[in-house]
Amino acid sequence: MLDGKAALVTGSTSGIGLAMARALAQAGANVMLNGLGDAAEIEKTRAGLAAETGRQIAYHPANMLKPDEIADAVEKTAETFGSLDILVNNAGIQHVSPIDSFPGDKWEAIVAINLSAAFYSTKAALPHMRKAGWGRIVNTASVHGLVASVEKAAYVAAKHGIVGLTKVTALETAEEPITCNAINPGWVRTELVERQIEARAKDMGVGIEEAAVSILSEKQPSLNFVTPEQLGGALVFLCSPAADQITGISLPVDGGWTAR
């Protein structure tokens, strides 16, 4: 479906981003990985994904706090694969604290990585997509781009911003064969969520799985976690011909969270 297309997926050395990169490669795209971590582990991941999918898989170490490095990741993707057709803005961080004690440096970092980085990468990618006459931009937002939760001021603000940026990008490219959409996951059992489950289990004096159900029951009516593979499938759909006229949307993958 995506044979010969070139993709950059930010924050893709693990978790949701890696699952998205894998889904794109399985659909035929060559993929530029990006993210932080141990260099040897990242190379192992890159080589493993290349062997598994038979696609070209490269890596760029751009720091999402630095606009120049973000732009360089876009340019290097185009140089490496001959184009940049798909941009997935997935990199993100989180911090939980009440507003009146929320550290200013955490606010700045969360807004920079979760929102501003997507602006800079989109700005750099659009000329390549326009030159190629085709493009797909998919932003990993969150249910917190649609609703709020306490003690997540920076994350909620940034994810609401991503939804707004998605809509503006979609409108500015509406007459071109370029689309921009957001995927809005609910609870996904990532390492970050696993730590929250462990903390809940300790506070409640219960087992891990009982704590997991407790967390799910507060927000996610399905009582099941979203899987990274399901998010990868949603991404591939948004890049497919079936989604040619889908642009500017926020697609909840949230087990009914935002239906309430």
Task: Tell me the series of helices and strands, N- to C-terminal.
Answer: EHEHEHEHEHEHHHE
Instruction: Output the CATH homologous superfamily of the largest domain.
Output: NAD(P)-binding Rossmann-like Domain
From the alpha carbons, calculate the radius of gyration and give it in angstroms.
18 Å
Number of β-strand runs:
7
Q: How do the strands of the widest beta sheet line up side by side?
A: 3-2-1-4-5-6-7
What is the CATH-assigned architecture of the largest domain? Answer: 3-Layer(aba) Sandwich
Low-confidence stretches: none
Instruction: State the end-to-end CA separation.
Output: 35 Å
User: Which strand-content bin applies to the residues?
Assistant: 5-15%
In round numbers, the mean pLDDT is 97
CATH C-level label of the largest domain: Alpha Beta
The main sheet comes to:
7 strands, parallel
Given the helix and strand composition, which structural class is it? alpha/beta
Choose one word for the global shape: globular
How many individual helices?
8
Here the CATH topology of the largest domain equals Rossmann fold
Q: What helical percentage do the residues reach?
A: 40-55%
* Count of discrete structural domains: 2
EC number: 1.1.1.30
GO biological process, one term: monocarboxylic acid metabolic process
Keywords: Oxidoreductase
Family: Belongs to the short-chain dehydrogenases/reductases (SDR) family.
